[in-house]
Design a protein that fits this description.
The chain has three domains: about 200 residues, 3-Layer(bba) Sandwich (FAD/NAD(P)-binding domain), CATH 3.50.50.60; about 80 residues, Alpha-Beta Plaits (2-Layer Sandwich); about 90 residues, Glutaredoxin. About 25% of the residues lie in helices and about 30% in strands. Strands 1, 2, 8, 9, 10, 11, 19 and 20 form an eight-stranded mixed sheet that branches. The protein has a five-stranded antiparallel sheet with strand order 14-15-16-13-17, with helices on one face. By secondary structure, the protein is α+β, with helices and mostly antiparallel strands. It starts with a strand and ends with a strand. The structure holds flavin-adenine dinucleotide. The site of flavin-adenine dinucleotide has 33 residues, from helix 1, strand 2, strand 9 and helix 7. Keywords: FAD, Flavoprotein, Monooxygenase, Oxidoreductase. GO terms for molecular function: monooxygenase activity. This is Monooxygenase. It comes from Paenibacillus ottowii.
């Protein structure tokens, strides 16, 4: 079987990438080892930038119906919460929603768009074909049930490994995964609590240990625990209910009547990042590209955001409206963003210790986070609203170039109002002309391209930094490729002979 793209791994990241590609009419399949979706929710949060991204595809409302918005987030289990409500976003909260539900919504969306999902197939070999006449990648999988002899060989122009931390794609491509091993562990239990905390949620941290409790489903709570003794237990030692009961009792003086665990797991702080996100026709995304301690609930969010960056680039190269070198910008843009995010999780992990020095550091951080500017700055990091990309070098400078595109209300020529994010539902670039400049708009109107929508609009109130904007090109992932100011009457620096500079 031949596809334009094969995505290995049908977790949240692989499935979202496949959906983005299908939206751009790329023929894509997902190969997933599990016969049925997992029933274990590692992630419980969708952060503001991820919600904005879903908003840009018309999916946010669906998630909102299934989750619970919470106005704050945490940093290293500190008592001073990060205030998301002050963030400059229409999604200024985190959505509490089990990963299982997030994955269901994404998979439904992907299937509707025509993504082919091969379940119960484990990829065992990924090999780039090097002969000129057969350029592509060969992927060999075996059925996970039935006779192992049941082998499938597929080929694709590009393969993306979204196959998690132990990624076979990364290993087969020979991409190094440098970083550090686990030095501390914590445990989680998704279980019933006969005597849950009064408000349903609880968090405390002292020299005896740290505990966080929150409801996952109406009858199931997540308990996260670590103590000075527990954090030294190797990651592969199974967690028992008794360990959870004893840990809770030691910290809270009660085990809260914990019983019937649905999932018990021990996780560690190994932190690694793939040396490159691209090698020839093979690319990596999500946990296959980076692992870390799950502090601040960021891993899945970051993976989803990075494949929004990759999806349109792969589509552009495959459809022929962008050169293959555009794919290098996936690594160039995302690697530094993720390096920063891994540092952030490492700092949080350093604060998870029980020595007097670390407890004093925690106290200092508590105080710092009471300052609104510091609190906001960290909230912007955890929510990923601070992410921006280097401005393209070959377009006129404008402060908005490379920045995140935030939603605002527009008036369209038919007299209807629209939210700017609605213009991105089809996953195309949006060439937005705001200046009502007839000479230019006549020229722009003739630009009819499969990957760019031309929109004329005006706004009663433009966001900060937008007042002088004449025309702006918004990328499918919601970042500003370039903006032209009203002082710049010559648009030929970005659009010449109908060719639009994209990046
Ligand atoms: C305790 C804990 C709590 C967390 N909480 C949060 C949180 O609140 N917020 C957040 O954003 N993140 C959180 N994370 C991180 C988040 O769960 C991961 O970052 C996310 O699941 C990564 O998604 P992925 O699709 O890249 O990889 P995965 O979810 O690991 O999916 C990879 C898929 O690939 C498949 N696969 C693997 N090998 C093969 C193969 N050879 N052939 C075919 N298929 C294969 C697997 O079966 C799997 O379905 C948490 C993690 C942990 C451990």
């Amino acid at each position: 079987m031949n596809y334009e793209v094969i995505v290995v791994g049908g977790g949240p990241v692989g499935m979202w990438l496949a959906a983005e590609l299908a939206l751009a009419r790329v023929s894509v399949c997902v190969i997933e080892r599990l016969e049925e979706p997992s029933d274990q929710s590692r992630a419980l949060t969708l952060h503001p930038r991820t919600l904005e991204m879903f908003d840009m595809r018309g999916l946010k409302e669906r998630f909102m119906k299934l989750g619970r918005p919470i106005r704050t987030g945490h940093f290293s289990m500190l008592n001073t919460r990060l205030d998301f409500s002050v963030l400059d976003s229409s999604s200024n909260y985190t959505l509490f929603i089990p990963q299982v539900i997030t994955e269901q919504v994404i998979e439904e969306h992907a299937l509707k768009l025509g993504v082919v999902v091969h379940r119960g197939m484990e990829v065992v070999s990924v090999r780039e074909q090097e002969q000129e006449q057969e350029q592509g990648v060969e992927v060999v999988s075996v059925c996970t049930s039935g006779p192992q002899a049941n082998v499938a060989v597929m080929t694709a122009t590009y393969v993306v490994g979204a196959d998690g931390a132990g990624s076979i794609v990364r290993k087969q491509a020979g991409i190094a995964f440098p970083g550090t091993d686990t030095t501390l562990t914590a445990i989680l239990a998704d279980a019933e609590l006969a005597n849950p905390p009064e408000s349903g949620v609880h968090s405390e941290y002292s020299e005896r240990g740290g505990v966080m409790i929150a409801p996952v489903y109406p009858d199931i709570y997540r308990v996260i625990l670590t103590t000075p003794r527990m954090m030294e237990i190797p990651k592969d030692v199974p967690v028992t209910l008794e360990e959870v009961q004893t840990g809770l009792y030691d910290l809270l003086g009660t085990d809260l009547g914990v019983s019937n665990p649905r999932w018990l797991s021990r996780f560690g702080n190994a932190t690694r990042q793939a040396q490159t996100y691209r090698k020839g026709r093979i690319l990596l995304a999500g946990d296959a590209a980076h692992i870390h301690f799950p502090a601040g609930g960021q891993g899945m969010n970051v993976g989803l955001q990075e494949v929004a960056n990759l999806g349109w680039k792969l589509a552009g190269v495959i459809r022929g409206w962008a050169p293959d070198t555009l794919l290098n910008s996936y690594h160039d843009e995302r690697y530094p963003v993720n390096t920063q995010f891994l540092r952030n999780t490492e700092v949080q992990t350093r604060l998870l210790d029980f020595t007097p020095a670390v407890l004093a550091h925690r106290q200092l951080h508590e105080e710092w986070f009471r300052h609104p500017e510091i609190n906001r700055s960290m909230a912007e990091q955890i929510s990923a609203l601070d992410v921006c990309y280097p401005a393209a070098g070959n377009v006129p400078q404008h402060p908005l170039n490379g920045k995140r595109f935030a939603d605002f209300e527009l008036w369209l020529p038919d007299g209807m109002t629209s939210y700017a994010y609605d213009l991105l539902h089809e996953g195309r670039f949006v060439l937005l002309h705001l200046a009502q400049d007839t000479k230019i708009s006549n020229e722009l109107r003739h630009i009819s391209l499969s990957h760019i929508s031309y929109v004329e609009a005006v706004a009663d109130e433009l966001p900060v930094g937008w007042r002088d904007v004449h025309t702006v090109l918004i990328r499918p992932d919601g970042y500003i490729a370039w903006a032209i100011s009203v002082k710049q009457t010559d648009i030929s620096s970005v659009i010449k002979d109908g060719i639009v500079t994209l990046i």
